[in-house]
């Protein structure tokens, strides 16, 4: 007769995964003031965020690692160069004994598209790490890590509408209503560096008319203002990077034309350095119909109907 001792199976307790989203950033307006002596460009941009987003999951305690999944995972390139890992490492240099984890990025936003997809992912990583390590999101080390990771990461860290100035580090919140929109990307990557180079500013040079821009800064509507009033105000704005982006990738002009022809489109403009463009509408029904027609006419394009806020 064999006797067996009753043993209790080992139980491994693991922390639940932490999840954050990286919402697409849309530059409703973008004015280039000039180029600083250090080569960085000074801008003034009204930024809003879309309801489409990448999804970032982290399992705390695991070694720092990044997996990419989702419909656009292949476009992420080498994970070693991904801004998620860069943001984590930069924060780790500033926070002793920072607890890392294994990241999984579900990629649905186009890359090199002018909507800050990589920056939004990096910002999501910083928010996840802040939660895992009990750090407030306004911790100076997190803010510094965002600034060191990329120019658009600070605005994506908060992911709320604001006016962004300087090289992206100065943010002023703005109460933007839910704006029905259609976003379109022709699935053509556009290099931000190339677009700014095409703008042709030398170090220390102001863009023509920039002095007037600084004197006559836009006054945005206050909270509670109607969508129609916002559309009228936004129509006065522009994106100074639109023309150079069109010279580099003429398809941007085709995207803008499709959006401007859409029924109910109040205005159409390029976001960031392109090639993603957007149109704003007074109501969501018109936006949805416009997105369906554009997708039917151009099945190879990335099209999203939703809201900006």
Number of domains: 2
Judged by helices, strands and strand pairing, the structural class is alpha+beta
Tally of alpha and pi helices? 10
Q: Which percent bin holds the helix content?
A: 25-40%
Radius of gyration: 22 Å
CATH fold topology of the largest domain = Ribosomal Protein S5, domain 2
* CATH architecture name of the largest domain: 2-Layer Sandwich
CATH class group of the largest domain: Alpha Beta
Taking pLDDT < 50 over at least 5 consecutive residues as the criterion, the unreliable ranges are 1-13, 213-217
State the major sheet. Answer: 6 strands, mixed
Termini separation comes to 73 Å
Whole-number average pLDDT? Answer: 92
Using the alpha-carbon principal axes, give the shape: globular
Q: Any key phrases for this structure?
A:
single chain, 309 residues, alpha+beta, Ribosomal Protein S5, domain 2, Alpha-Beta Plaits, six-stranded mixed beta sheet, 10 helices, 27% strand, globular, disordered N terminus
How would you describe this protein?
There is one protein chain. The chain is α+β, with helices and mostly antiparallel strands and 309 residues long. It folds into two domains: 18-173, Ribosomal Protein S5, domain 2, CATH 3.30.230.10; 179-308, GHMP kinase, C-terminal domain (Alpha-Beta Plaits), CATH 3.30.70. The chain has helices spanning 83-92, 117-132, 140-149, 153-158, 192-199, 210-215, 227-234, 242-248, 251-261, 284-297; strands at 18-35, 41-60, 65-69, 101-106, 162-166, 170-173, 179-185, 265-270, 277-281, 302-308. Strands 1, 2, 3, 4, 5 and 6 form a six-stranded mixed beta sheet that branches. The radius of gyration is 22 Å and the shape is globular.
